[in-house]
Fold these 4 entries.
Entry 1:
Amino acid sequence: MRKTIISILLAGVSILNYAQTQSGVYQSVVAADGSGNYKTIQEAVDAAPEKQTKPWLIFVKNGSYEEQVVIPKEKPYIHLIGQDKNKTIIHLSLNVGGKPTGKESEAVLPYWEVSVHNPSSPVYKREGSVVMIKAPHFYTENISYINDWGVLAENGPQALAMKSFADCASFNNCIFRSWQDTWQTSPNDAHRHYVKNCRIEGAIDYFYGGGDVLVENSTFYNTRSGAILTAPCQKDAKWGYVFKNCIVDGNEAAANVKRWGVKFGRPWRNSPKAVFINTTLNIPINPEGWTDMGTIPALFAEYNTCDAKGNPIDLSRRKTEYQYKDRSTGEQVKGTSRTTISKEEADKYTYENIISATDGWNPRKMMQQMDAPRDLAYQGGKFSWNAVKGAAGYIIYDGENIVGFTTTDTSFPVSKINYTLKVCAVNPYGALGKIEVLRK
């Protein structure tokens, strides 16, 4: 029944009535309705060549893709570009050993969550994840990554939506949803991630792992009281987890500080680091801010945390003392961490220092939106527009339906207009530009 609902609602954005078209700037196009080169994302990844030294662009049309996706280590530079983050959905019911409770099969979802359907046959896989990134230089945008088990069961065990275990991984304008352990970053502290304009949802340690990771302009959405955002485990990372200009939000339960309240994180292993800079709290959090786990943090701190109205948050009750039980000796180990950093220190947590310092890696360049094409016209069955400087190609739409792709051509044959013609430019990395609409 739920699959039927998904199909009906996604039909409005399918292109079943169009012939298969060329992929233009993209090496391959994935479409669940069969209108692309492949019907599943894994098929497109499997067809990509090994040992690439430049981006291999895979475009994914709106649709529900119920599958596990693995980017093998032999396939670097995969760029996975979705059409619309709310309608291009990679999802699966996957966990590391929990059994169905019945709650998930009884769930009745609102229309905006129809992408997540009944996980009546969960997949049990130790250390599994809906998506696993093993190759460096992975880039993605405009896609929802959802673990159905976590969203519907609202319970453990681990149910990862994303596992990114490689250097130079970047994510823009994506959604990540589960409950426990939504996203695990690389245990290799030499690995860097850059995350921008994303929404990450969960309840327990839902952004965890190692590496130097910069997250900017993103929202962390908490789904229960007592939620814990992060569980870092860095050992040798210079910066650790850095969250800049982010929002902490959540449902009514998460906002209930009188019960437990949300906390920023807890130290998983080694000597972890996590710093929140210019954070906006849309919901109140536990005054302690942090909690204990399995080690002593090297640095768990904040700078310039404000409420939703821009008022500074009182940090005087933040946790400074930590303790844990040593598994080998059984002894209680105690230590401390600062709760704040100065402006001078905060100013050093820059994109250039964290992301680009060692080799000039520049994922922001991949994310740059091209300008919208201008002077759109339709005459004699031909849709045309002016070239956008620097564009590697264009995507042509009729409403939300994609009717074609071009590279350098600035016109495309359209025999019939069902909705409204639109076009956007694509940059050399596959990222979508601003869409322009043909005015009648």
Entry 2:
Amino acid sequence: MDGGPILSLEALRRLERAAAGLDLMRRAAWAAADWVSARAPAGAPLLICAGPGNNGGDALHAARELQARGYPTLVYQPIPPGSAECAEARRLAEDDGIAILSALPERAPPPALLIDGLFGIGLSRPLDAHWQEILRRLDRIDCPRLALDCPSGLDAYTGQPQGAALRADHTLTFLCHKPGLYGGPGADLAGSVELAPLDCPFDLYPAAEGELNRPSAAALARSRDSHKGSYGAAAVVGGAPGMLGAALLAGRSALAGGAGKVYLCPLDGRLPVDPAAPELMVRPVDEAAELPAADAFAVGPGLGQQEQAARLLEQAIARPCPLVLDADALNLLATRDELAERVAARAAPTVLTPHPAEAARLLRSSVGEVQSDRVRHVRRLAERFNCVAVLKGAGSLIARPDGFYRVNTSGGPELASAGQGDVLTGLIAALLAQGLDAFDAASLAVRLHGLAGDDYRAENGGPIGLAASATAPRVSRALNRLLASG
């Protein structure tokens, strides 16, 4: 997966205007033709779907180039061009003798590849019933599909279909990445995504609002002359009666993530030692106990929402060290305004790791609203709480208080099991304890957690069966692999 900036839609339009003399439409067509040529043998029949706008112009120019390379090409354009650029592309295609149909032929054999250039990122309203039926019919054609820039009908920034969307196996996106290709329904609709920057000079690019999540692990490289004190102490606070497992998972993950020492501070004091990880230093926190000295705290896994939990959270917020808040710590913030205000006023770094329901509670919103525009809501969280916010889910998002964000592309449904959030929380705490800044610690932890899931899928042929307790060792392997690769 290539890297690259994420521009807002408005900034992307500015870039297109600045690059007007570069003939981006032709460059997009060449990029599409190169993509096809690298994957399909000459002579493979193609169905190219062209819309009325500039995305349709990309498709029509691609049809011309592919026909010149020896691909039998049929163009389907349901309505006439609506832009001058698309009209000119159609005229040239017709001059080249390319068949352009306004209706799909009945009972035609499926093509080797369908290229979707009906609607690009400019789609600003839901598709009407006529277009929805066209997309449904195309979706029934049994062949691979390549989307140009984004699948038709998909909002490339929210990942939400606009009434309907044409599912792609692959998406070749242009100039910059778009977050909606990785999150929400867009993660499934876009298939595998590749960026074609179209050789656009980088000095024309406006400031990015985000990027794909590719943090470096180089700061974690270890010298031979080191000891456990070189890698910080992390403390996990949680584990109320009946929920001790959550704290254990976070603590074990903090060990796997490289923290030199890990304190486990359960509210359930009946556990003297963790037999599976006796390295964990168990320090139960009863009504009078104070939290241990540590370089980073993770509060929330199995914490509960009783008064003792609120008192411990208040203690942790007051500590002048990095803090990760998850699970019931987030639920307490959502219901106790004074705690929320103290978090927002912290001078030390804070990381919040909500899933969509927790994010909705923190923002006094609904899950549907959060999921309808995940980027906007993760940025709201980061600003509201003066923190690094991680909005978990497909294409997890990591945002700073200034609004800059990263889109994670590793992992998938193999991580949709109980306790995986606790593993992530402990991992972030371990990276904070080792001195990474909050944005990079959260970003690297999210990526590593996803890579552990990717490894499981590759080894087991599918996503089912990865228990949270088996994830932490995979995280260690993924981290060491990143370090070894430089």
Entry 3:
Amino acid sequence: MTTPLTDATSRPQAHFAPAENWMNDPNGLIHHDGLYHLYFQHNPESAEWGNMSWGHATSRDLRTWQEHAVALRFDDDEQIFSGSVVFDATNSSGFGVDGRAPLIALYTSATDHGQAQALAHSADGGYTWTKHGVVLDRGTADFRDPKVFRHGGEWILVAVEALDRQVHLFRSDDLLAWQPLSVFGPFGAPEGMWECPDLFPVDDRWVLALSVNPGHPGGGSGMQYIVGDFDGEAFTPSHWDWLDHGHDYYAGVTFSGLEEPVMLAWLSNWAYAREVPTHPWRGSMALPRRLSLRGDVLLQRPAVEVDRPAAFSCEHTPVPVGGFELPREAQGAALRIELAIRPAEAEVELHVRAGAEPGDAIVVRYADGVVSVDRSGASNTSFSADYGLTSSAPAEVRDGVLDLDVWVDSTSVEVFVDGGAVTISEQIVTTDERVGVRIAASRPGATIDSLVITDLDRR
């Protein structure tokens, strides 16, 4: 029998997780009046999937979150599936009150008859909502996940026919009446249904992000991104790749109300999300990521600031064969590890959440042009037969230096390589006593250019 991780030992310190019950996709991400609003797929009554509603949390810094009352609750008529929120600055919808422009939520109304896009409005900055009803219905069973944005003088909505692997684009003047523009897809990943589309500008180009379930090379669900152009009516692709190479990054969408795109995603995988042994919550968000392009490559960098002094740092340090364990001040269950290392001809490893035995660790490894994360050394890997143990991706060593930015938390490890050109996100199930950090090399010659470790634990 699996012993669940509990609040007392393993609540995430650098990632949002609800106080209790089930959570999956982020919804309605918006920056408004100085606050970041995170709505999320939530079961307010259980840690199991079901009774889909929108939970709600706010933050001023994308790191410390305050959870609020459920924003949009399921009822006998509908469940509240994924969607988005925009600020209707000109009150084009007419739902403003006393001269104050409203926030508008477009969400998927899921009923026994199918899925359609419905609208709700808020006059108090997003804390309470009034349902208006369905505004866009194709009469199909799997039409969902509207993302709305302003383009020129009109509103654009993108949603998916999930099983067809198609994105449908619409336009509106008032967020109420929608006219079809174009259809995109299938494209890129050859398998799995599409969910949670997001279309946004990046560095004078456009990126379409899509969640795919199943079909990710690591097994289960994942995300792809497609670089291209959008002319106000149709999206034209030029390049695609997997957005994250780990097992646990899904349903990522960007915040409305920001000049530069910042993405937040669910840190899990549909292959085993229902079985992850945490209590009284189940599900957490990944780190928010600031997005940019290097050619056709989407760069993802952490969008949170850590305002703490380094717990440990060193420079120009050779890595002995067999490696070494870092001192106590460099250890912990929640750390940021910024490492620039010269592998030379060696295979190099960073061990985190390490226990007393050499194999008791999560291992970030570089060898022969490939970075991998091996979570087979976690305390518990047996709760699901679908819980994949290793993820990997090609990675550049620039001027002889491998650049790693590794965020370790109570239930996750996220690795950013080469300035965010490669990311690997992994959920982990281990005990709070395992806090060791080791660096190892397979042969002489590996050298640490710089190492900075910051303690993220807020307890």
Entry 4:
Amino acid sequence: MISGTRSGGRSSSSAAAQQTARQFPPGGSHEYPVRTEDDLLTVRHAVRAASQELGFSLVDQTRVVTAASELARNALIHGGGGALFIEPVREITGTGLRLVVKDDGPGIKDVEGALTDGLHHRGGPGTRAGRRAASHAQLRGAHRAGRRDDDHCRAVARPMTSEAWDRPVTVETRIDHYSAVHLAATRARSLGTRCGLGGSLPDQAAAVASELASNLDKYAREGSVYLQALPLGEGLEIVAVDRGPGMADPRRCLTDGYTTAGSLGTGLGAVQRIATDFRINSTVPDGTVAAARITGGQHRPLPSGAGMVCLPAAGEDVCGDSAAIHENGHIRTTLVIDGLGHGEAAAHAAGRGLRVFHDHCDDPLEQIMQRMHHALRHTRGAAVGLVRIAPGTADFCAVGNIRLCVLSPQRPHRQLDGRPGIVGWNLPTVQTRTATVAADETTVLYSDGIEARWARQPSAYFLGLPAEVLPVALGHRHRRLRDDATAVSLAGVA
């Protein structure tokens, strides 16, 4: 919390924050002038009050206040004053604040330089600190010598709650009793809301989860429902996986009226109608994977050819692994990071690495690895794997127990292992290796929480699964319960 008083000692910071909270509007943008040192205190109170209203954790409140304070101070010291605009935002990744700081000049010649630690001419460490404290930041500047009155600098920082963006986690509900059907539906409704689904969509997500879980309870063995945010795009993914007996004709099961249990036979057909995208893969006797994706933008096609799973160790509330996929045109770059051990300390290391990836995901893979090594020096360290898929090729760079497997329905599979070492502690010479990947092949990047034996001789069951559902199926069948388990799959690009 911020301590201290306004000049004159008339009111405490907590009282000022409460007063600002009453003034903060429920929607729209609110402006605060930045002309004096006292205004900086007002800005901090206003931002903290706004973040409290939106339900930010104490850690996230501190981060967003730090970002606002540094940006506003730069506007006062280097821009001759300006204004801070606070606007609540609600996006698919969660609820947050958009902070816009404007000044009247003289602008910034070198915007990238201003974001580098150690540069003290206009916004050196302060601007960089503001960017680090925000989950998303932009800095735009216009510069003309001698024209302070016409030019301005605009900085935007949008911190989101850590639950929404820091570490994607997959929620598993084992369907070992009929009561678990209701639990899966409740979790789907809650996670759908957190993923930004509006209106009746969270209830529709609950209905889909309930139907898929009910089918597992009635017909399948060792089934689970997995819930997670989409790896690419915006929305919720609901995946039901079992170990048999499978369906001889999955398409027939999608027809209204077809049933083997005496019910109305509208279950899977209703799921197909509700979901933005629904696919089902089943083999006898191996089992079934049914995946429904629900989004708010019904008219936009969902990105395809990418799947993910990120499961915490049994008994843990947080996951020490993390993963991300970045798309830039026809090129996709993915990260799997495994913090040493598991629990809070491992999650802290993975979260730091994830932020580096989000900031530098278009850089060469070796540079991303070097940046992560620097960022993780004061953590317990991590194993890190990076893959960049381009038409016909896959570049692989990894340190530690992160493995890459290239699956092909026609050709022998290939495996690549990371180099020995720990990112953040003893980084070996970083190397990027390139493998040929055809359009019909799938690359799978996974942590050692997934048993490596699956890749020695991949079964026909896994070879027949599309990239979108392959990681969840791997996690269901080959996860080590005592460790965090993460896998990401990407289809080849023609």
